[in-house]
Design a protein that fits this description.
Blueprint lengths: L2 H4 L2 H11 L2 E3 L2 E4 L5 E4 L2 H14 L2 E12 L14 E13 L6 E12 L4 H17 L3 E3 L13 H12 L4 H17 L3 H23 L1
Parallel strand pairs: 1-7
Antiparallel strand pairs: 2-3, 4-5, 5-6
Length: about 210
């Protein structure tokens, strides 16, 4: 048996960790008139890690543990939101390709907002991305010099905050959405998220005030 085939799963995981240490955020996610924020995508994570997982004989497959499609929220006038929240729990099993009984399973919860049928796919991609990032201890950031030690608001939660702010029908709804979102970003010391949330609030506030003035 070759030396690589003799390696157990944890040795193979360690080999991938040694090969890949950092993935740069590759996508600007638009928040409409309030601007955008940086995110690392599922495809970027897959593109960078796939060749190393193949080389070191690690296979990953998902299993849906449970899921829930929440009904759209309804505002005080009884108008349903166009966005629906999908929640799911997945098990991602990483397998030693040479010894299939040698395996490790990671459980990840995820959610996604969408106004059509894309939410389940978004949630699965989000969960897979973070399973890989956390297992292989991969760092992400806009650039190598700009990385900081503070925690960040994950892009799924930030996207949901922006959706709530941008979809607010009244100033009271906007205030409530802001008072939910901003303290979370502030507690995480995520200055980029704080700026995005403030921009989204201000942009929606201008629209609502203009509508009131008509």
């Amino acid at each position: 048996m070759s030396e690589e085939k003799a390696q157990n799963l944890f040795q193979r995981i360690n080999a991938v960790r040694a090969a890949v240490g950092y993935i740069q955020k590759d996508k600007s996610v638009s928040t409409g008139s309030s601007g955008s924020y940086k995110a690392v995508t599922h495809d970027a994570v897959t593109a960078i890690t796939r060749e190393h997982m193949v080389k070191h004989g690690i296979v990953c497959f998902p299993y849906l543990v449970e899921s829930l499609m929440n009904p759209p929220a309804v505002d005080k006038d009884g108008v349903p939101s166009k966005q629906m929240r999908y929640e799911a729990t997945y098990d991602f099993t990483f397998v030693n390709a040479d010894i299939p009984d040698d395996r490790l399973t990671i459980r990840i919860q995820a959610h996604a907002m969408d106004n059509a049928d894309k939410a389940p796919g978004k949630a699965l991609s989000y969960a897979k991305k973070y399973a890989v990032l956390k297992l292989f201890e991969l760092e992400t950031g806009e650039d190598e010099e700009g990385r900081v030690a503070d925690h960040t608001v994950d892009e799924g939660s930030l996207a949901e905050f922006i959706s709530s702010l941008s979809g607010a029908k009244t100033m009271d709804e906007l205030k409530q959405a802001y008072e939910t979102a901003y303290p979370i970003a502030e507690k995480a010391k995520d200055t980029e998220a704080m700026r995005v949330i403030i921009r989204a609030k201000n942009a929606r506030g201008k629209v609502l005030l203009a509508e009131q003035a008509k």
